[in-house]
Amino acid sequence: MSETHELSTVETEPIADPGLPAHEPRPTDVDEKAETRAERQVATLFGLSTIFTLLFCVSYFWLEVGDEPDVILGLGASNLALGGFLGLALLCIGIGMIQWARKLMTDEEIIEYRHPGSSSNEDRDESVKILVLGTEESGIARRPLIRNSLLGAMGALGLVAIIPLRDLGPLPGDKLFHTIWKKGMRVVQDVDATPIKPSDMEIGQLINGEPGIFFEEDDEGEPVIEGAELQVEKAKAAVVIVKMQPDDITPSKGRENWGVDGILCYSKICTHVGCPISLWEQQTHHLLCPCHQSTFDLADNGRVIFGPAARAVPQLPLALDDEGYLIATSDFTEPVGPSFWERG
Amino acid sequence: MSAIAKTNAKLAAKAPKPSKAGAAATWADDRLGLATLAKKNLRKVFPDHWSFMLGEIALWSFVVVLLTGVFLTLWFVPSMGEVVYEGSFDQLRGIHMSEAYASTLNISFDVRGGLLMRQIHHWAAMIFVAAMMIHLLRVYFTGAFRKPRELNWVIGSLLLLLGTLEGFTGYSLPDDLLSGTGIRAADGFMKSMPVVGTYMSFFLFGGEFPGEAIIPRLFTAHVLLLPGLLLALVAAHMLLLVYHKHTQWPGPGRTEQNVVGFPMLPVYMAKAGGFFFMVFGVLALMGGTMAINPVWRYGPYNPAEVTAGSQPDWYMGWPDGALRIMPNLETHIWGVTLSWNVFLPIIVLPGLMFTIVMMLPFLEQWITGDKREHHLLQRPRNAPTRTALMVALMTFYGLMWAAGGNDIIAIKMRLSINQITYFMRAAVFIGPVIAFMITRRWCISLQRHDNDKVLHGLESGVIMRDPQGGYTEKHIPLPAGAAYTLTARARDKVFVPESGADSNGVESPTAGKDKLRARLSRLWYGDNIQKPTKAELAEAHQHSELEHLHDAPLEGHAADGHQFDGRHDISEEESLR
Amino acid sequence: MRLTQKLSHRIAGRLSAGRRGRIAAPLVLLLGLLVTGGMYAAFVSPASAQDQSADEDMVAKGRSLFLVGCASCHGKNGEGISTVKGGQYGPSLVGVGAAAVDFQVGTGRMPMAQPGTQALRKAPVYNAEEIEALAAYVASLGPGPSVPAESEYDVKDATNEDIVRGGEFFRTNCTACHNFAGNGGALPRGRFAPALTGVSEKHMYEAMLTGPQQMPLFSDEILSPTDKRQIIAYLKKNEETPNYGGFTLGSLGPVSEGLFAWIIGIGGLVGAAVWIAANTTRSRKKTQHE
């Protein structure tokens, strides 16, 4: 049974337990003036709390929020007043209660005796007997057919917890391998859709760009893409366009004509965990992601030169359309954004 | 029952009607049998020490989080449907944003007290996790997790984990730029998981990132699932605490069999209740004076925008740090990608750390072989290896945490983020080792100091010179209570495995494990200083008497020094010199 | 076709007859002079003799200031000085334009107190007149962006739509380096994007236009002057917006918030706990009436 049913004892060697020290009274226990003072102190605190609560209520109605919020010391007045008064009201109650306990309530230490964590041996024996009896009566031990078929049924039921979750989302398919970019799509400045002519750009310039289709409207004047669909596409299609000295660029094989006049276009989505990158250092050609400091060299095909990202940032091949504006010549040639298992 | 007859009629006098409160109590007891419960628990004794109140900070801040959270749910709209903002914050008027973000702006600017409640809620959440953490440290350093409280430790670890998740889901709800970037990173974490990564990502977001499902789903987790789990675990945690009773520090009159302190009614109700109001008050003051999560300055979430200084809330800072300093390892093999650079620091490492923390009581029990119940706490110095182990873990945690803020450190201290990263890569391995060694030695030296105090007393600063020219310092013996407090602990017992083979020459099947266990146990107790024996104490006592015997004629009284230790009152003739 | 040919031959014949006259040459010359002079007058602002000499004075003054304060890093003719290892003391200033000079010298970044990876903002060394002179000199080295006119960066009349739009541009182009509140951010190797508080509208415009040091530039053709003005309007509005939630704790995001949660929140509450459980004063008096 249990060897540890008794509590351990603290060894009383080498020094014996001198016992609880004698109770020493507090000034409020022996001095009537001190006691009254403490009582008044506590009552004052509670009274102050009520005043602060009232001030809270007054501030709520008196101080404006919304279009013309009240301001005090450069801070929002309503928030400051409501928070300040509420906080003080609560603190006063709290301090009052604690002062009451510390100064006025009896502070003689009392003793309570512990019991061992485990149940008594008799209780244990008794429960074991009951468990054995009950199990016997159920016959589960003698009827393996029933037991096993029940286990099987319960186990199968576990599928019910999992299968209906299938419609939580669609299967990934090949969605992560494509973005909305395609041949001939204009590269434009984000927010105002300005199209880009190479002569408009100077060495050291950065443009945060998007595919032109994000700003197109259909015949009824409605945006072609909007809402959640826009956010989804933007999370893969956002790009940065940078212009460097053509001599500084060292394109890898096959990418020699992906730039135009020293203008290169890269995905804005970091290959680490997907934050947008647009910290461009024009003199070093480095692009730094603010989230985890992955750094990419855009003069060298977006190669990783520092940080936890493992893959170069994908490059979008550029060309000029017949009006002289920058366009993409195809989609990205590799998946954009964070790595995933099937990426290969 | 009144002793005075109320009537002199034939019928027996009726007992006077009980008071209103009594009537109510009787009504309740008739149906619920509360009296038994009340009898046992209302005068429950709780020992008094400030370090026992750290868990209370967590509990009360959790209550504040619940209260302010309910307020927020009355206005928050957990939807990612797109709206055009027409509220009172000028700088975002006319912008397309999700309803979640718009309703958060509404709460901040058009609901009186709304911004206050948002801020109190957020500060309270931060304090909740921080308090759980210092409570965990306190419980660990004082050995309060030992039998019979190991399960409570496990429950507490789960509470810490759930609290962290609750915080993450919570600050992501407003769908602002900062927290949206965090969700984007979370998507990246999931995608890094082998085999199932993309499926998990698509199932969580209902498709590609960001989709329209994530905010409503996080809302359900944040408002229903996680609070439910938290409340259940908090209740279990409190129940076990009440059942096992609180641990206490050793001291005069305190033993393993008792609890010495103050009763629940009235003292603890007042102190704990008062503390609740103080916690709430401090949080309200913080919410009123210190801005937190000013979502209107971040702007609505846009997957093409980001802010410098993008960090998660502090309690997720350490995995973020691990993510930042991790070298960029990735394996491309057989047509699949294994992203070690993300998977290891953000999935494996936190899981590992959490498991280690949860298993600490069982690990210690296995090493020391200590199966006794413990209700008296240990000072951290009396368990040097345990203390050093946790300090090493804290150092690891702290360095990772600092690494998570490396760009803020870089700009505030004019350092290079690259150098900070390189430093951290080495420091997170070397730092804990150094911290372990220093802490352990420090604890052992403190143990030695304690022993000196017991054996020789306190240094008085009074130097005596004997006729031969030698100098000695007079020591003041420790008061009996203090000396008892220092020695009311068990001696460390190294685990000794059962001897090699049994009578038939068969080796024990656990021989290998036992040998390892014995070695670890020796290392665990290593150079610990044990408390003095009776013999040592007597010898030291005698020694101190002899040492100053020659002063007795000079002072006119015995040189036993007992005038300072409370063993007898100081009379006028005696002086303290 | 034959008709026009015949006609042109006729006209040519008449013209060539006139060409052989004695007055032909001086007439053509006069015509040419009048045309070119007229076109010049019409399309190019005529610099009066006085202005021209003032410009030259400015450039000369600028040059003398330049030789004293700038040439040691930027070279006697602003051509830049490289180091042996391939770095530079000061880059070439040919083509940087007056705007760059006005920004760098006007914000005190130049002259740098010491060579380093980043020029720090400090009290300007030169006064407005000297800066104008330096700018004129550097502008004379090669064509580059000129100092913007006040109408380009003045945001006093900005509408709320301008401010909202400026915020959108700001969050798309600027916050990644300068942070959501314009409080700055870290760059590699110890560099940083500085805080934008307390920066004049003109300097903000010039910084966007010229891209100082590692900052990229934003040409007026893509990020138009209106766009730039909107960004400046948003930043200025931000500066004067009250802090609705209380003290901003540095506007650095969750790092400073966590720091304050620990120091003030936990520090304060643990302090309260220590007070609550502390031993209260004890009295030597044994009973009520001693």
Shape of chain A: extended
* Helix percent band of chain A: 25-40%
Give the helix/strand class of chain B. Answer: mainly alpha
**Helix and strand string of chain A, N-terminal first?**
HHEEHEHHEEHEEEEEEEE
Strand order of the largest sheet of chain B: 1-4
Describe this structure in words.
The complex is a heterotrimer of chains A (344), B (577) and C (290). In chain A, 32% of the residues lie in helices and 13% in strands. By secondary structure, chain A is an alpha+beta fold. A 4-stranded antiparallel sheet of chain A has the order 4-5-6-7. Chain A has a 4-stranded antiparallel sheet with strand order 8-9-10-11, with no helix packed on it. In chain A, strands 1-2 form a two-stranded antiparallel ribbon. The longest helix of chain A has 31 residues. Chain A is extended. Chain B has 577 residues and is mainly alpha-helical. A two-stranded antiparallel sheet of chain B has the order 1-4. In chain B, strand 7 and strand 8 form a beta hairpin. The termini of chain B are far apart. The relative contact order of chain B is 0.09. The mean pLDDT of chain B is 89. Chain C contains 12 helices and 4 strands. The model of chain C has no long low-confidence stretch (mean pLDDT 86). Among the domains of chain C are: 90 residues, Cytochrome c-like domain (Cytochrome Bc1 Complex, Chain D, domain 2); 91 residues, Cytochrome c-like domain (Cytochrome Bc1 Complex, Chain D, domain 2, Orthogonal Bundle), CATH 1.10.760.10. Chain C is elongated and about 140 Å long. In chain C, the strands form 2 sheets. In chain C, strands 1-2 form a two-stranded antiparallel ribbon. A two-stranded antiparallel sheet of chain C has the order 3-4. The longest helix of chain C is centred in the C-terminal third of the chain and has 24 residues. The relative contact order of chain C is 0.08. In chain C, helix 10 crosses helix 11. The chains are: A alpha+beta (344), B mainly alpha (577), C mainly alpha (290). Chains A and B meet through strand 2, helix 3, strand 3 and helix 6 of A and helix 5, helix 7, helix 8, strand 4 and helix 10 of B. Strand 3 of chain A pairs antiparallel with strand 4 of chain B, so a sheet runs across the interface.
